Amino acid sequence: MGGKSRRCPVCGSTKTVEIVYGMPSYNLYLEEKAGKIKLGGCCIDETSPAYYCKDCGCEFGTLLGNPIRELEK
Ligand SMILES: [Zn+2]
Fold first, then answer.
1. What is the 24 CA–ligand 1 centroid distance (Å)?
2. pLDDT(53) > 80
3. Which residue of 4, 46, 60, 71 is 20 to 30 Å from 39, comparing CA positions?
4. How many independent structural domains does the chain possess?
5. pTM for the whole thing?
6. Is there a domain that residue 70 lies in?
């Protein structure tokens, strides 16, 4: 495994974005509007999905082994 591309396991699309958890800042809201990320809400645990597929809408991966983006303090 490995590699930089995060390919959707369902449809094979590479149009996937990182899911960002926590209380969204306005900047994160704008990033979601621009299609760069997906907001995952405040509830987070180690089984929460890490990526979102913009083509089929599925969420995949887990946060385990993935660095969680530091939220703005
Ligand atoms: Zn997909």
1. 24
2. yes
3. 4
4. 1
5. 0.77
6. no
